[in-house]
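Sequence design from tokenized structure. All designs in this work follow the same two-part layout: the structure record, then the generated sequence. An example of the structure record is given first.
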């Protein structure tokens, strides 16, 4: 009982200090008092400068049950890279990062990995036990760093890679969020108008004793149908959403169809293409710089491409490279990579600086994605306003047409 009471009194403290080399460090630890936190930090080789209790979330909220996200893994990668570059031993770094993490699930996973390492497993093997969060690419890079004795440097590359990939994903989500939100809002407003506003006008029009304009009659008929069969309409929509979600989770042919279709879309297709090329270049650059053989790296790069069209093309490139074909020649045959990218890769191969050239390609296309998102946002605003004007404005005009006609008659 005493243990349970003491555990219940543990609070989270944020701390700042310096390590043995004098480098600044900060993080979080759970404990019962600032004094014990400072003692624990000194035991870990950190000189605490500031320790304060972390404020509790408003309204009693907690992070219990919060899922581990790719962003959590990216932040963890950066923290581990920083810890190891500061001279903190691997196990101790896991202790600091794990105990200080605010997500209980992430904390539990990191403590399990720490236990595996203390039990004699390599870091790559310990991470591989959690494939949901540490994929083959991540584990291969860590393994390469451990084998070559450059784990510290590889962790920095992994952290940079994860941060860049998450930034690309964030930009694509940003491009898709605005139009999606507006379309959903338009559907909600249209439904409210058809179910609550149009029936009032329809009752008013019945006393006119004249035929309604075609547009008005169509809107009234839509309102009558929705009022009578709203359960069927929303039921069908819900079933469609569930089916699509299920197919995305379980059906590879359906996902392949979506990947192929989105590349053919006028505006979003170009955005996805640039993002995929950036991810391809960044992934291959990171693996090649880690010393992973090109043929072996291509298998992992294909899995990280994020689009089946490019995934299949990269696997074909791998087979051609295995038979002695240069990377730039195999890329050219796919007809999926711009000529500029192929030329830069050719220069990198000839100069023996393929990883650096791939990194430049990744930087260029990541900036292109950023510019494309900004341009897309500017382009979508007038299109969305026109869409709302046609839908909502059309309903309003349809309701007032009979009134205008009655005014003309009078």
């Amino acid at each position: 009982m005493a243990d349970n009471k003491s555990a219940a009194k543990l609070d989270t403290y944020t701390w700042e200090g310096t390590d043995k080399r004098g480098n600044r460090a900060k993080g979080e630890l759970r404990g019962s008092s600032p004094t014990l936190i400072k003692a624990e930090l000194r035991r870990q080789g950190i000189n605490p400068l500031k320790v304060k209790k972390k404020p509790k979330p408003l309204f009693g909220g907690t992070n219990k049950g919060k899922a581990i996200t790719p962003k959590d893994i990216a932040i963890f990668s950066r923290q581990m890279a920083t810890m190891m570059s500061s001279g903190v031993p691997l196990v101790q770094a896991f202790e600091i990062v794990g105990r200080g993490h605010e997500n209980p699930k992430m904390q539990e996973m990191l403590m399990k990995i720490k236990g595996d390492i203390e039990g004699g497993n390599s870091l790559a093997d310990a991470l591989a036990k959690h494939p949901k969060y540490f994929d083959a690419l991540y584990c291969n890079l860590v393994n390469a760093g451990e084998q070559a004795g450059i784990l510290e440097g590889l962790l920095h590359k992994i952290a940079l890679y994860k941060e860049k990939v998450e930034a690309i994903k964030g930009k694509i989500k940003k491009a898709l969020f605005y139009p999606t939100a507006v379309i959903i809002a338009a559907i909600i407003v249209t439904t409210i108008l058809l179910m609550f506003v149009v029936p009032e006008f329809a009752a008013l029009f019945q006393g006119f004793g004249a035929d309604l304009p075609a547009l008005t009659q169509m809107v009234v008929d839509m309102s009558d149908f929705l009022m009578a069969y709203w359960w069927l309409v929303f039921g069908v929509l819900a079933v469609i959403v569930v089916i699509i979600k299920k197919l995305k989770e379980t059906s590879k042919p359906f996902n392949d169809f979506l990947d192929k279709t989105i590349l053919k879309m006028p505006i979003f297709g170009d955005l996805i293409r640039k993002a995929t090329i950036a991810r391809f270049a960044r992934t291959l650059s990171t693996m090649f710089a880690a010393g992973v053989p090109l043929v072996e790296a291509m298998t992992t790069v294909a899995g990280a491409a994020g689009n089946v069209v490019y995934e299949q093309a990269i696997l074909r490139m791998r087979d051609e490279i295995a038979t002695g074909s240069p990377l730039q020649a195999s890329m050219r045959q796919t007809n999926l990579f711009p000529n500029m990218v192929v030329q830069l890769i050719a220069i990198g191969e000839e100069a023996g600086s393929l990883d650096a050239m791939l990194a430049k390609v990744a930087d260029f296309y990541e900036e292109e994605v950023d510019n494309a998102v900004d341009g897309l946002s500017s382009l979508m605003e007038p299109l969305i306003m026109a869409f709302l004007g046609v839908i909502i404005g059309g309903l309003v005009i349809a309701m007032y047409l009979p009134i205008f006609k009655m005014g003309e008659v009078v």
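Confidence is low (pLDDT under 50) at residues 1-8, 58-63. We note this feature because it recurs in several other targets discussed in the main text.
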